[in-house]
Amino acid sequence: MDLVTPKAPEEIFPLEVWDLILDQLISSSDLINCNQVCKAWRKLLELKQTTFFMPKVFPILYKYLETVEDDEDENKEEKEETITTILKMRLVSHGWKEAVDSYLQNNHPVNEFSFEDLTLEDIGNDELVPYSPYQFGVGGDVTSGSIAKLESFLGKGFSPDINPFITREVCYCGNVDNELDQRRLNTAFKNMLEAFGSHIWTCELISRTHTNRARFYKLVGSFLRLMPNLRSLQLRYYGSICNGRRRTNSEREELDMLLKNEPLPRLEHLTILEMMHVPYPLSVGLLETNGHLQNLAIHNGDFDDDVLLPDYIANVHIPNLKLLRFPWCEQNLCCVFHL
Amino acid sequence: MALVRVISSDGAAFLVSQRLAKRSGKLKTEIETFRKSSDNSEAQPEIRIVTIRAEILRLVLQWLQQHQNDPVLPANQNEQDGRGDAEMGQSQWDRDFLAPMDLGIVMELILAANHLEVKGLLDITCKLVESKITGRTVDEIRTAFKLKSDFKGNEEEQTRLENRWCVEN
């Protein structure tokens, strides 16, 4: 076969054969390229154009669908209409569903991290914890009512192969005063993760409970083990630590043993880690097991009593780190290092 | 009149005035970059647009020609929500321009207008696609976009379940 002289497609194969070949293509970028090759191919792809253009068009179109700004509560009805439209688009075809989901999962258009906006004075004000309508699962104020909702979630009939969290983003907010409810919440959250944790890419873990370092380390570790595909983790601890922040020598030895004997899971896809007031040894464990991080933000971490935080970070091996932020620096100005 | 040669992905060349071409943010940048790097101030810039085929590039240039005397919408207009003043800018000519097009072509035009940074065209094309989605049933959307349901197995039912869970939540 002479492949040097340009030929019309039908001189190479009958158009029916090209149709079968083009039918095998899945990637939107491949199909867009093929659409540009020649008139014959474009004609064969004509009926698929509105499918394969959608992954590229949806991010542009989204701004036109989004009728109100994120934080305008008074426009709740319009916001709900936008969500309804987006959800409806997921029902049109498999290709459209993938286009919508991919955009929401990779861009989190209505829930950007707002770590830098928090000041020490703001901590404890629930309204400042970012909450988004796309943040499905558990989130916001956790009451025994919402624990029951989480418990009933598993009875909704989702197949484990299906991702029920459209944005692949969940939030755990452990601010329950009652220890019994706290245990119930932890169990329900773990059950949910056991079934669907592999679908989750972004997780926000917020705790306001009174606990000890070892227990908190184990709790978070048990959650992380069930989310092997996590890409972004936000961890905030606003509670109080038993025996205070300062560690005694014997406690330190115990915690060091815990770190060594029960290491945290290495999350292969984790690139973004934001930590606020995270106690030792969880803070250190997360950095040591995830040396492949690219974007790290630390707000008043608890790392090594004897070393200043920037010095500690400088000595941890994180070769791919591109952005390091200490958001609490100098009157709430964000201190950013591009590495 | 200073001209610029704009070449589509499939090799078709369009000779247009630089004044007209500069109404596209992308072409304006390319022309200015060419001027800075060229010793000959009379040289004619040649810009190759590798992602836009001739039929679509012709439509973009046709729209620019019609709107050459309109005030230029800054690319960051209404940056907060990304929308321009589509309703305000849409004339009878625009409606006639878009009317015969398949939605597949309109979507291709959206990508072209976005790439070439032609805000006014982007606004009217996005508004057109949006109007075919918002307030319509799923079946009406499929008809408008000539799509058929291609969900496999119980995927459509699971998607309905996911959507319901989102709303309940």
UniProtKB/TrEMBL annotation, chain A:
Pfam families cross-referenced by the UniProt entry:
F-box-like
**Chain ranges of the F-box domain:** 14-45
| Entry-linked InterPro entries | F-box-like_dom_sf, F-box_dom
Taxonomic lineage per UniProt?
A: Eukaryota, Metazoa, Ecdysozoa, Arthropoda, Hexapoda
Name of the protein described by the UniProt record:
F-box domain-containing protein
Query: Per the UniProt entry, what species is this protein from, by scientific name?
Result: Orchesella dallaii
UniProtKB/TrEMBL annotation, chain B:
Q: Which residues form a coiled coil?
A: none
Q: Fetch the InterPro entries from UniProt.
A: SKP1, SKP1-like, SKP1-like_dim_sf, SKP1/BTB/POZ_sf, Skp1_comp_dimer, Skp1_comp_POZ
Cited SUPFAM superfamilies: POZ domain, Skp1 dimerisation domain-like
Which Gene3D superfamilies does the UniProt entry name for this protein? Potassium Channel Kv1.1, Chain A (3.30.710.10)
Q: One of this protein's Pfam families, by short name?
A: Skp1
The residue ranges of the SKP1 component POZ domain are 4-69
Instruction: Enumerate the PANTHER family for this protein.
Output: SKP1
Write down what this protein is called.
S-phase kinase-associated protein 1
